[in-house]
User: Fold SGNH hydrolase-type esterase domain-containing protein from Oliverpabstia intestinalis.
Amino acid sequence: MDFQIAYERMLWTMKGRYPKAQLYCATIGCGVLNGQNMFPEYLNGNAFEDYNQAIRTAAQKYRCHLVDLAAMGVAYDSVDGIHPNARGMQQLAEGWIRGIEEEKKKTTHRKKKRSWTQWLIPVLLGIEAVIVMVLIVLILKVFIL
Assistant:
């Protein structure tokens, strides 16, 4: 699927240019026109859900946060079944906010496991600093006395 390749390339580029940034990806919600789901089942020969699965896969592969608007059931009012109108933009924004808040809850509840190198290196550096200070004091005592 060309979409997945292009989406992954976009995430790879963004991660490369902004390595400290936390990226959020969102699946595509459902466009509604006059109260009816109008989003096409297929777009450019690909099933609508294939696009969302490509987004989910790429977000996981590149360790991005995922706001899964489709799984959350976010629908939005549209001018043509695809492009949101003013109310639809508000609905999408509310979905994004809800999704980001849910994603933050997930990440704050996970405990970060520290590997042995994450605690050992600072300890060794601390010990090294103490040894250097002791050596300085001994050298000063020898040369001053």
The two ends are 79 Å apart (CA to CA).
